[in-house]
Amino acid sequence: MSNQHLNPKRGALTVEEAADFLRVSRATIWRLLQSGALPRARIGGRTVIRLVDAEAFLARAVEVA
Q: Helix-turn-helix domain: which residues (predicted)?
């Protein structure tokens, strides 16, 4: 999936969409979620990541680099 297909008004990303957005693997997303570095929500049994949280994570990563 390409970032151009993400709908910022939607507000939440699947694990796969978050991986695509951050340009990392799904396994990396799961590690970030399990460590608490990337917040998550559970909706209907599914894990979702708020777009604002993914953007904040990326901003923090840029500040550190």
A: 13-60
